[in-house]
Amino acid sequence: MSRIATFCCVAILACCCLQLHGQDADAGKNWPAWRGPQANGVAPHGDPPTKWSETENIRWKVEIPGEGSSTPIIWGDRIFLLTAVKTDKTVDTVPDAADQPKRPFGITFPKNFYQFTVMCLDRKTGKTLWQKVATERVPHEGVHPDNDFASSSPVTDGKRLFVSFGSRGVYSYDLDGNLNWQKEFGTLSTRNSFGEGSSPALHGNILVTTWDQDGPSFIIAQNADTGELLWRKDRDEKTAWATPLIVERAGHTQVITNATNLVRSYDLKNGEVLWQCAGQVTNVTPSPVATENLVYCMSGYRGSALYALPFDQKGDLTDSDKIAWRLDRGTPYIPSPLLYDGRLYFTQSNEGILSCVDAATGKTLIERTRLPGISQAYASPVGAAGKVYFTSRRGVFLVIKHADELEVLAENKLDDDFDASPAIAGKELYLRGKKFLYCVSE
């Protein structure tokens, strides 16, 4: 559950797309990872509709089996997404829900088998092209009522598809659904059994995944061709859900991880820590986003923290004058920020209260302003063609102008609930609800 980079011109945008993902220029026309081609929520070639409803600008709407809040991934004429399908098959070793210990939020451990499923849909029609069950298992722990067993998003380089079902393994497929390899790294023990959600990050031929839990935490790098473990580093962290950001900066390919104890920059080559900084609050979920010079890490559960940190430093930056700027209000709990042309957009906690700041200076442009019609939001905002799109949990979508002042362009409504973050490719907006996947297009 999980973000963003901003740039000043098209040339820099294209360059950073290559740096962030090690992919060719086609990545910018697709949505190859959960926060898009630049890992910042922006679709540089996107221009989807501003207005839509159940009867307007819906190219297609298809029902998705099972449950999942992972973002749809788009490459070429295909859409990829994950889901967990509950079966009727059960085990006798897990008590019925009524006989289990009382847990926060009424969380129970499942006794049913789930099919952890990868789906590929036709982009033009929504028709399922292939559907593969990666594994069928009984999850070892439950999830928060607002989470599910398929909340990690896939990532692709246009040739290979990588998916993480966390405790159920990491898998690589070709785009026709043929399995290349699979690896497992044990089971995660998440805080209060809230469930998993961090997505893998891809750079060139290296796949990186964080395993932050209420147990021995670590970060791993794998050879994307074979799944071979390249390096593994222990982490002094509790459960977090932020997806790593990988960028080429200051002479290194840096892997930035956001977490409660420390934001860390790892050298992708060997996993050595380049620099680190404390200051985040707990239950860290928003993923980092970056400009050329600064990376932005934030969190918003039981406190607020936003740190703008330089790439060209070494050692511990905590409480030092090397921190470019910081903010202690209005930051998100679950949604990741949007970094769009020098503006950093984010919402407070899980509410529809918008802040926008200048990414270079931290100057406030929009100060904690209520977004009309948006009460709760788990999905992260996205941007394209001078517009910013916000998604509420109850199917209200707000489109505002990409500007220093709040200007609402449209308020839209669909008949589903939405926790997954949107994806944009070309003139299409893809919205995954609890039941349906929508293709919004004129």
Query: In which range does the helix fraction lie?
Result: under 10%
Tell me the structural class.
Answer: mainly beta
Number of strands: 33
Under CATH, the topology can be stated as Methylamine Dehydrogenase, Chain H
**Which CATH architecture is right?**
7 Propeller
**Total of DSSP H or I helical runs spanning 4+ residues:** 1
The fourth-level CATH homologous superfamily is YVTN repeat-like/Quinoprotein amine dehydrogenase
Distance between the termini: 29 Å
Oligomer: single chain
CATH class: Mainly Beta
Radius of gyration: 20 Å
Biggest beta sheet attributes: 5 strands, mixed
Question: In percent, how much strand structure appears in the residues?
Answer: 35-45%
Summed up, the domain count is 1
The low-pLDDT segments are: 1-23
Biggest sheet: strand arrangement: 14-15-16-17-21
Q: Roughly what is the average pLDDT, rounded to an integer?
A: 94
Pfam families: PQQ_2
InterPro entries: PQQ_b-propeller_rpt, PQQ_rpt_dom, Quinoprotein_ADH-like_sf, WD40/YVTN_repeat-like_dom_sf
Organism: Anatilimnocola aggregata
Protein name: Outer membrane biogenesis protein BamB
